[in-house]
Amino acid sequence: MIALLKRDLRLALRAGGGFGLGLAFFLIVVVLVPFGVGPERAVLRPIAPGILWIGALLAALLSLDRIFALDHEDGSLALLATSPLPLEAAGLVKASAHWITTGLPLTIAAPFFGFLLLMQPEAYGYLLLSLLIGTPALSMIGTFGAALTVGLRRGGLLLSLLVLPLYVPTLIFGAEAVRRGAAGLDASGALILQGGITAGCFAILPFATAAVLRINLR
Amino acid sequence: MSMWEYANPRLFMSWTRPVLPWTFGLAGVCLVVGLVWGFFFTPDDFRQGSTVKIIYLHVPSALMAINAWIMMLVASLIWVVRRHHVSALAARAAAPVGVVMTLIALWTGAVWGQPMWGTWWAWDPRLTSFLILFLFYLGYIALWEAIEDPDTAADLTAILCIVGSIFAILSRYAVFFWNQGLHQGASLSLDAEKNVADVFYYPLLICIAGFVLLFLALVLMRTRTEIRARRIKALQARGQDA
């Protein structure tokens, strides 16, 4: 498992843009928002938590189709399936690698993008915490979606149609936690529910991912 | 002979042929009786006026939009466990009907909401979760269309349906957490002391029966079409080999 994780991380780094591309996309989304809605503090401040969460979600979506597609093309996915490592674990590792290359950098960078959107200072901690709890779920759901569409020639568009509705609960609780934090309310309820969703995703989705991969490799 | 025998494609075709016109006929009778009774022979509500009559379309279609997804879930589970081809095809056949039911429910709700709430759309939990259900339907249909091999498509959509169901339920409760509602409580339920008043109740029940029968008839018809399409494909494949 560790070896696979290392391999995936190395590939993401050397292929170029593994870390950078998602972040740059996130930055562009955040920069475009003030052009769209106007630069006033009164407009930007209330929508900042939601924009940051949506930006993170789209940036995570951007790199999803790379999770399995390249391995499928060069045949290493079939090797993975026949290796002693169970396919469930392989799915888990793929999701972890995706999270380390996109979710983690997004989480770390999000507060800086919060400055650009003039977010309240009180909300930064909640933003970090909610992204830290929520982005692993995004990666796991995305891995499932990527496994579903791995055999398809143009799966990218379909992938977003399949995955985005599944992101709804994570997005609601994540943005809600930040919004409550910004308003000085108790955000622990939303954070706990979000944690529950993430835990549930990790409990169920590796099996679904492995089942889907087996069907696609048949 | 177990009940699974009836799911054999050949037997399915032979027993649905006589049943289908009856189902359509009964659905038509129920819909005509229920809608005419509902629209012309019930009094106007004292607060909502004549707009109350939209429930004869809105409630049954909303009910069937959810039940169609549940039926697809059951059919998917049967396909995963017992690998009955008819079951997978029935799930595929139900999805577009479910989409249309969802759209009818959303549209009639908007038409009703405009005079009553003063808005076509509100980000209310029930409305929003229906919109998300609509997106789930779209994704499910798109996945069916995207995959060439029918068995692979059936497997993948079945798993998508099962996972999607979990997330649909999650989204529903998440959405309640997110926003307090504008939508009134359920009009019908088995354990509530007070349902809608009797004058509205009986035509509504007939309309619901009509929608259930219409759904059944459409799914049976579409399943038959799917089986025929599958047979044609098999014949063509055989022709190319020869």
UniProtKB/TrEMBL annotation, chain A:
The answer on whether this UniProt entry bears the keyword NADP reads no
Q: Which domain of life is it from?
A: Bacteria
**InterPro entries found in the cross-reference section:** Cyt_c_biogenesis_CcmB (IPR003544), Cyt_c_CcmB_bac (IPR026031)
Q: Which Pfam families match?
A: CcmB
Tell me how this protein sits in the membrane: Multi-pass membrane protein
**Molecular-function GO term, any one:** heme transmembrane transporter activity
Which locations, inside or outside the cell, does it occupy?
Answer: Cell inner membrane
Name of the protein: Heme exporter protein B
From TrEMBL, chain B:
Query: Keywords for this entry?
Result: Cell inner membrane, Cell membrane, Cytochrome c-type biogenesis, Membrane, Transmembrane, Transmembrane helix, Transport
Predominant place of localization: membrane
TM stretches of this protein: 20-41, 61-81, 93-113, 125-144, 156-179, 199-221
- Pfam families reported in the protein's UniProt record: Cytochrom_C_asm
Highest taxon above the source species: Bacteria
Which stretch is the leader sequence? Answer: none
UniProt function note: Required for the export of heme to the periplasm for the biogenesis of c-type cytochromes.
Instruction: Cite the GO molecular-function annotations of the record.
Output: heme binding; heme transmembrane transporter activity
Family in the record? Belongs to the CcmC/CycZ/HelC family.
Q: Which organism is it from?
A: Yoonia vestfoldensis
Q: Where in the cell is it found?
A: Cell inner membrane; Membrane
* Membrane-related topology note: Multi-pass membrane protein
What's the encoding gene here? ccmC
| Protein name per the record | Heme exporter protein C
Gene Ontology cellular component terms for the protein in this record: plasma membrane
Report domain Cytochrome c assembly protein positions: 3-183
Entry keyword annotation includes Transport: yes
Gene Ontology BP annotations = cytochrome complex assembly
